[in-house]
Amino acid sequence: IFGVKCKVAGDIFQDNAILSNPVAGLMVGILVTVLVQSSSTSTSIIVSLVSSGLLEVKSAVPIIMGSNIGTSVTNTIVALMQAGERNDFKRAFAGATIHDCFNWLSVLVLLPVEVASGLVSHLARVTVSSFQLHRGEEAPELLKTLTEPFTKLIIQLDKSVITGIALGDESMRNHSLVKVWCKSNCVTFSCLSTPTDHIS
């Protein structure tokens, strides 16, 4: 299904004369996201089109910004469903508006910067070229490299327990998946009781 979506989207996006206009690209991103009701789906389609060479990175930047605006339509629709209760609707619409304002403001700041200087597409090219990837080479695990030092400070999983459960070892089922890495030193105090003299 995803391949069919990409093929249809590829036929639509072949006309680079329209998509070379950043405002048109922004509107396409909004429209696609509103139609599929998922910014993840529309962004995945755009990334696949760029990867296959059907779309340039410079043209993809405004479309992805448009998908961020399009996703704010979904939370506004959800907020409108609360219109029966005045207080619930007020809180729901306030929450939806925060999301909308963030997306609109980021586009209002970044789109003119991108149109004037090509900053975002240039940063994307610099980032990719810094990886020094070659054809047929496995891509680096960028997200894991960035997050692993922080997640290790919070929680560590015991991989031997996971492996044991996967292999069907019944004795591992009662073990905790969380590795105990914070050991506390227990100090034992012994109370020496001495017989007390009878005080008369």
TrEMBL record:
Protein location: Apical cell membrane
Primary localisation category: membrane
Reaction catalysis annotation: 3 Na(+)(out) + phosphate(out) = 3 Na(+)(in) + phosphate(in)
UniProt similarity note: Belongs to the SLC34A transporter family.
Protein name stated in the entry: Sodium-dependent phosphate transport protein 2A
Keyword vocabulary terms for this entry: Cell membrane, Disulfide bond, Glycoprotein, Ion transport, Membrane, Phosphoprotein, Sodium, Sodium transport, Symport, Transmembrane, Transmembrane helix, Transport
Gene source species: Sinocyclocheilus anshuiensis
Pfam families, per the entry: Na_Pi_cotrans
